[in-house]
Amino acid sequence: MSVETLPDELLDFPFSWRGDQLPDEIEVLRKEPVKRVRTIAGDKAWLVSSHALCRQVLEDRRFSLKDTSAPGVPRQYALTIPPEVVNNMGNITGAGLRKAVLKALNPKAPGLVEWMRSNAAELIDGLMAEGAPADLRGQFADPYSAGMHCHILGIPKADAPRLMRSLDIAFMNSACPVSGAKLNWDRDIAYMVERLDDPATTGLMAELAALREDPEYAHLTDEMLATVGVTMFGAGVISTAGFLTMALVSLMQHPELTAELLADRGRIPAAVDELLRINLSIGDGLPRLALEDVTLGEVEVKKGELVLVLVEGANFDPDAFTDPHKVDLARENNTAHLSFGGGQHYCPATALGKKHAEIALETLLEKMPDFRLAVPVEQLVWRTGFMKRIPERLPVMW
């Protein structure tokens, strides 16, 4: 669809589920960076699409993430997790667990980088042994991300598939509540509670289990501790696997970038930030609820209204990034993207996510330097859901 002007009536958002091309509407929104839209849930919201205004929303505490789960407020889509879990990092901080969680998410944790290198190499070797075509998502990005989070949590990697089964529903976009969501949540919480009592458990879950003996943490229930494990696995796997999958799509869409990285592997860290900037896997807006009347650009956002931060709009904003559609490893401000959010809800796993991607790309380029799509990009089947504008499969040859 070619879009020259946007209609005055409410736009339906999101615009497109394809992750290989920027929706046409985004360029038109440059003239109206705060635009009224209708969400999947049928509610009205303000869609914010310029880099400056997106940052303003993310950094202004008058725009709340926690309150987007309150009863009766406008929603982007129906909740598929308990309302109290929406502000997960805030809950972790309030419970006194922030230090333990940040320690677990540190890529400099002993042995973590070595584990990632070994696991990435093992997965690539395995799919190459099976022969082309291979599915770089199902055989590499997903298990690599799931395995890393199992390692951090200290739970068996063999249990990753049972936890992965929940993610399709946990990160589903639906206008109405999904009955299977609570079943998945209860099952995964029960699993993590069992890990708290399992002497074989290591990593973060073992550290959380040990806190039960500390009188200072007597206020924490097993379910609260298990929630940390469930949410870290779910949010962590879906975001890292989603980005890595789309980074691979972008590399195959930009063979000149792959050639640059093959010539100089030292540029991979810069490439990761640039690939994060052009990443289109998020799909939705980052939701915030206005706690009071706030002027946003030329719009007066009223208390109680829903605001959606359009990350891909910010990351392709020509006022923030010169020639934004060009993939430029020498871009001076390539870390200014908003792919990890911003403000008080800036992703605490940023450094880990970048290192995860760096090692994956380095391993892939070393072992499979001429990988390419086995089908035209137009034939990829795209999944839908928050942080999941990614292909069902990513078939490649080499």
From TrEMBL:
Pfam family, one: p450
InterPro entries, per the entry: Cyt_P450, Cyt_P450_B, Cyt_P450_CS, Cyt_P450_sf
PROSITE patterns reported in the protein's UniProt record: CYTOCHROME_P450 (PS00086)
UniProtKB keywords: Heme, Iron, Metal-binding, Monooxygenase, Oxidoreductase
Secretion signal, residue range per the UniProt entry: none
Family affiliation: Belongs to the cytochrome P450 family.
Protein name per its UniProtKB record: Cytochrome P450
Native source species: Streptomyces albidochromogenes
